[in-house]
Structure formats: C-alpha cells, structure tokens
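Reopening this ticket.

The earlier resolution said the output was attached, but the attachment link was broken on my side. Pasting everything inline this time so it's all in one place.
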Amino acid sequence: MVRLTALSYVAALSSLHFSMGAGIPARRAMTVHESRSLPVHFANSGTPSPDSSISLKIALTANDMAGLETKLYEVSDPASTLYGQHLSFEEAKAFAGPTPETVQAVTAWLNENSITEITTSGAFDDWLGFTIPVSTANSLFNADYQQFSEIGGPTQLTRTLAYSIPVDLQQHINLLHPSTDFVRIKQQPKFQIPVPTPSNNTARALPAPSTCNSVVTPACLQALYGIPTTKATQTSNKLAVSGFIDQWPQTADLASFLRSLRTDIASTTTFTLQDLDGGSDPQGTRDAGIEANLDVQYTVGLATGVPVTFISVGENNADGIDGFLDILNNVNAQSAPPHVLTTSYGFDEPDLTSTLANQLCNAYMTAGTRGVSILFASGDGGVSGSQSQSCTTFIPTFPSGCPFLTSVGATTGTTETSASFSSGGFSAIFARPSYQTSVVSSYLTALGSTNSGKFTSTGRAFPDVAAQGQNVEIFNAGVAELVAGTSCSSPIFASVVALINDRLVAAGKSPLGFLNPFLYANPSAFFDITTGGNPGCGTNGFPARAGWDPVTGLGTPNFASLLAAAGA
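Inline output:
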C-alpha cells in the first residue's frame, strides 16, 4: 500500500493556488454523480453516529478502457491476426491504470479537505482509500449515509441514496464506494432427492448409462460430453475456484469423492489454497461447505491432472461486493494468472448501480486480455433472478450480464433438457455484444411477442453455454449427497476448458482466454438443447429452442468438437 499525502503533490497543490497554511479553500462546484431509490429488499434502520468512522474508496478512471476493449477482441477473436497474443501485466496496466494526472487531481482535492492518510489499492493502483467520520463523508460528498437492513435477511449496510463529486473531477472519478449499492451475495446448490428423467440415449454417439438420469457422476459427464480421463501434463495451466461466505472445501471429502467416483486417480490428489481478505479453509466436518466441496470436487475430479487452486475470500473485504472485485484485482495483478476462474455465486443485477457493475465488468475484461477464461453460474431463479422470487418483470443476474465473461446455465437428464431453474435473459445495463448479435436476433424473431415488456430485448443475453446441473453427486461432511443448481454447471464447463487449455499449452499455443468470441464462432461444437424453459415471475419464462436460447445458451460441450475448433 502506498500512502499519498499533500507533500506528495506539492506541484499540484500550487497549481490550484492552495496553501495548507491559507485555511480551508473555497468549496468546489458539485454535481450529483449517482442516485437511486431504496431497493425493495432493504429498510432504513437508523442514522449512524456522525462521529462514527466510515472507510471509503474512490475508483479512478482508467487511462484507456475503450482501447483495452479493442485489444480484448483482437486477442480473443479467432479471426484476428492477434488471436491468442494476450497482454502482460504491464501492457494491461498501460490501458487499465489511471494516469498520474488523475491520481494527482483527486489526491489534491482530498488533501484540500484535510484528508491526507490515503492508501492506494487495486491491481493497477486505481483505488484511493481513506477513513473519515460519517459527518465528514456527508459534507464532502453531499451525501446522507444511513444504516439499512435486508428485510428477512442478514445483510446490514451503511449506504447513501445519492452522492456528489466536484464538477472538475468528473473525468477522473468513476465511483465512490460504498455508496449507493445494495448487493446481497446469492447462490448455493440445493440438496435434493433424486428426480429421475426419462432415458433416451439416441442423441449421443457414446450414450451415458441410464443411471445418470438420477445420479450424475464424473463418469456420466465423461460419457455425455466426451471428456477424457487422460491426465493433463502442463503444470502452468491452472484452474482457479472462487470461494466466498465461509464456504470451505474439505480434503477428507475430496478424498472420499475420488475413492468413490474417480478410482483411476489417486485419492491423495488435492488442491492448492490461496487466501484473500482474511480467507481460510478450516478442516472439519462442521466446516464442510456444500458449494466449496462441489466446486473443488468437480474441478479436481473432472479436469484430470489440472492444478486447481481454491481462492478463499474472507470477510475482510473493502470492495463492498463481498470480495468479488478484490479477487479480480488479485488475479489481474499476477504475472502468471490462472487460465480459468470459475465462480458459482452472483447477485441480482438491480442490486448494483450501473457504475459499480461496469467497474467490476471492466475487471473481467482486463482478465480476458491477460488470457483468463472467466466463468459464472447464471443463477437458479429462472427468469426471476439468482434465486426464485416474486417479480412482475424479469430479473437479470450479475455478473452474467457482463459481456466479458462466460455465463453457464443448467441442463438435466441424459437426453438433455433445460433445468427449469436455469437463470437466463437479458441485461438491463449492458448492451448486446457483437459476437452474439446474429444468434440472439434469430431467437427474438422466433420468440415474437412472448414476454413482451418484461425484459430489455437489446441487452446482453445470457447464458452462453450450459452443462448438467441436477442430481449431481458430491461428498459433504463425509456423506454422499445429491445437489442441484447452475453452481454445478460452471465448474463442469470450466473443467472442459481447462483440459482443452492443457492440450493447447502442450502444443506451444496460448490458452483460450476470453471464450465467447470463440464459442459463438463454433456453435456446432455444442449439443443443442431444444426443450424446456426457465419459468418465473408468473410466466413460463423463455423456451429453449434450436440454436442459442436464454436458458441453455449455445448448448452443452462436445469435447472433441471444441478441441478440434481450438486447433489443439
């Protein structure tokens, strides 16, 4: 952490005709930067003491984020001459980091207001942090910080419904945090009783056993998708798993999983732990986490031989997004980041402001330029969001609505149909990216007036792909259990990507990196899912159909076809 004080920017302060000995300067002209109404899931629970402290962070604007987006597509589009030429840390920083002028201008303003204890953070030193009394925060930002409680939930927040910044600093400041966001981390797989589906294996050249209709195991996935059991060889090809909200994988449960369901590999095979924000991984039956065990077992146990890292994100996060931004800053700051990062958590898009959503989405874009494939579970509420809930209009999930990552929906059965809980739809924040223009337009034409007015038809559409998400067997707290959710689907698809990357790296080629331009350029490399839907909000949701759909995306992976398309 670097401390920035008034002495660091004497030249800047002089140019502003300000002297620390001259008293308080004239207040700058202010403009409202963000405002919102109170989300329906929260209620005001009181006014904090004006003397209580609040830790704030200012996100600085990047030098050239538009240029970085151009670079992302250049290195991710198979038709580009620069395909696979991912950026180094320093190359990415030249685009994504703030200019010295931006750092100087914002620091000078804070110094004017007697804020001199300032820390920098973020992958590219693009956040300025400081702690001040609530009364000072209210005065400095024309804010009204209040305490809010989630109705029927555990989340307690100190937030404001609006804040302002100096007019002359608008080009230097992206956002103030925490301020107007009301995020509630969602998603965990659900335990379930087996729900058999009819067996009809004619769709696959190598059909899965009929038992896979009631219990899904690694062997089922290997048969359904043609995933090889051959051990990966490239130690540089790492697969990372995100862990949040005290979800901890147990090495004993992983060993039981491998002894029972992957007898061809050593039961001592394990994962590497990386802790962040005070994260940990205590071992014990009571510490077993359903989500963490699922994610680790279906990466270690499916991406045979690929080194897996579990990134345990603790409660000491200051990004206000439950560590989502912290983990990306950590990944983006690495000289050799993991080639794949899978996350089985998410939010409802309306819980974030568009500014904060863009800030995090840009971090995923940066990771893509570094050669990292970012995958997210699409959510488990059908068209009603990350979890099933009452609604009158469809609720998109986030980060799935970000165009710079791959969103994974869920299927069920050996003759795959969409899982009814598979979240999908259209972002109300992000516009539709060019790589999906054709397939989404075709879907909307076929959809006609169905669900008209309930979604943003011009938004980024999700999910992009799908994989099995029901009746998935894991070991948890020493017991074999079945779980369901797109939480199952994301680590499964991530394992497919990791195994393809192993072949690419072994051949001296680059990993796949940001996947979507490649995936949408090769729709025939998927098993198309044409039945089912994702009901919610008092509707039948979206129907699955031939081609892309907002339930299962392009479909489920055909390993051999994807491998051939990747040129491995």
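Reporter confirms the inline version is readable. The radius of gyration is 24 Å. The chain is about 25% helix and 20% strand.
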